[in-house]
Amino acid sequence: MIRSLTECERTITTSLLIVAGLKAENFHSQAEILVKVLDDGGMGSLEFASQNDDRTFGKAASQCSFFDDDGIEVIITLNLDQRGEPYELDVWKTDHSQLINLENALNSKCEVV
Hints:
Blueprint: E1 2-4, H1 7-19, H2 25-29, E2 34-37, E3 46-48, E4 57-67, E5 73-81, E6 86-93, E7 110-112
Antiparallel strand pairs: 1-2, 2-3, 3-6, 4-5, 4-7, 5-6
């Protein structure tokens, strides 16, 4: 499924870009950013849409962790493609259950991976 990035997802991604030392202004100011919802059991992982069909995973850039409403730890990693552009927002709830409240990530501490 392709959809627009939510404001919460945009804020988290922007924070992760800044922590990684990457330019976030262009990303944050784009009117619409399309993402593909990944089949991860409802944890919330996304792939950023791109005109480049030859994109592949390049490296993890930064991550944040927080606790979901049920007390389970969630780790969000910003992955870049081989060109250093945002590729994926990998959301991993450590017990593999569905994410309850992504907004809990807004107050989390982010770090370079």
